[in-house]
Amino acid sequence: MNKNLKSYSLISISLIFFIFLDLISFSQTADQIKPSLFLLSFIYWNIALPEKMNLFFAFIFGFLMDFIQGTVLGLYPLILVFISYLSQRFFYQFRPLKFIQQALVIFFIFIVIRFMIAVDLNDSNPNSLTLADKEYVLISIAFAVLNALIWSPSHYVHRIYRRKWIKI
Question: Where are the transmembrane segments (predicted)?
Answer without folding.
Answer: 53-86, 98-117, 137-157
